[in-house]
Specification:
The protein has two domains: 119 residues, NAD(P)-binding Rossmann-like Domain (Rossmann fold); 141 residues, Dihydrodipicolinate Reductase, domain 2, CATH 3.30.360. The strands form two sheets. It has a six-stranded parallel beta sheet with strand order 3-2-1-4-5-6. Strands 8-10-9-7-11 form a five-stranded mixed beta sheet. It has 275 residues and is an alpha/beta fold. α3 runs parallel beside α4, α4 runs parallel beside α9 and α6 packs across α7. Bound molecules: NADP nicotinamide-adenine-dinucleotide phosphate. NADP nicotinamide-adenine-dinucleotide phosphate (NAP) binds next to α1.
């Protein structure tokens, strides 16, 4: 087997919604050259919809395993995720993560750790992976002087708003519906208060403008603030309501970034970059 066709030996953390999808799709995607050697979960006794023989609840079985060269981190705990990233890099393993909360919070440290170690931390899956946006910004816009960026980047809020508009129901009822169908978390605050969008926007600012910031510094007005009268007012004027993430470079070179609920004209592009 040549170096080019050598398979990556992967240690996976997390076997929830994203982890199971990764486990099932990896062998089916013809261009991916990786095999999962071990999976670490929180509760090894949990009943799961997928079968895997190398399951463990001990992180060191991946982190100290010389037979694993890449860690794929797909857990829902941002603090534990940050521990995993640091330990994996210290052990000489590159990391792939989907944890936007952890990445937004620790981006400056992640960049420094990558420079020190010469290893990679990749996180396309953390921000609008199906578009995709990070790779586009890096490959096609890196030589452009972008002035602004705007987009709808939180799927759960967007689903809740669409259901409220289509079915003529209030926001709380639409949240319950989204939870029932698995489109919103049991605790929907991260999505409906705009934290998730702010974390994603924080990561996008780094790739669009080279600007690193604290996600807490991004102004947020989530969809939890919407009243039934707002929905009626919008419907009467053929407007939609959307949670938009937006950033502009100011004349003095500073960056203004915010995630806010706003009236929106149907047909506008989902993501727009202006140069
Ligand atoms: N769901 C999406 O559409 C989506 C999209 C993009 C990015 N993401 C990000 O992807 C990550 C995973 O999301 P998800 O929806 O797959 O979450 P999930 O369904 O809640 O699954 C979380 C998984 O993490 C495991 N876990 C939690 N803490 C752990 C720890 N300390 N050590 C080892 N395993 C641990 C859990 O183990 P048990 O199974 O034993 O409980 C579970 O398998 C999150 O960061 C999320 O923000 C999700």
């Amino acid at each position: 087997m040549t170096e080019q066709t050598k398979k990556l030996k992967i240690g996976l953390f997390g076997l929830g919604c994203v982890g199971q999808g990764f486990l099932e799709l990896l062998p089916k995607t013809f261009s991916s050259k990786g095999e999962i050697r071990k999976i670490c979960v929180r509760d090894i006794h949990k009943t799961r919809g997928v079968q895997f023989d190398g399951l463990t609840d001990k992180p060191e079985e991946i982190l100290n395993n010389p037979d694993i060269d890449v860690v794929v981190e797909l857990i829902d705990d941002a603090d534990a995720s940050w521990e995993i990233v640091q330990k994996a890099l210290n052990k000489g393993k590159s990391v792939v993560s989907a944890n936007k909360r952890m990445i937004a919070k620790h981006l400056a440290e992640i960049i420094e750790l990558q420079q020190q170690s010469g290893l990679s931390v990749l996180y396309e899956a953390a921000v609008c992976a199906s578009i995709p946006i990070i790779r586009n910004l890096e490959e096609y816009f890196s030589t452009d002087l972008l002035e602004s960026l705007q987009g709808i980047i939180n799927g759960s809020s967007n689903y809740i708003l669409s259901q409220a508009e289509k079915q003529g129901i209030g926001i709380s009822e639409a949240i319950h519906l989204a939870q029932k169908l698995g489109f919103a978390e049991a605790d929907p605050c991260l999505d409906i208060e705009g934290h998730d969008a702010a974390n994603k926007l924080c990561i996008l600012l780094a790739h669009a403008f080279g600007h690193i910031c604290n996600p807490e510094s991004i102004i947020r007005i989530g969809i939890d603030k919407i009243q039934t009268e707002d929905l009626t007012w919008a419907a009467e004027r053929d407007l939609r309501i959307k949670l938009l993430a937006k950033a502009n470079i100011q004349p003095d070179g500073s960056v203004q970034a915010y995630c806010f609920t706003t009236f929106y004209r149907f047909g506008a592009p989902a993501i727009r970059c202006k140069r």
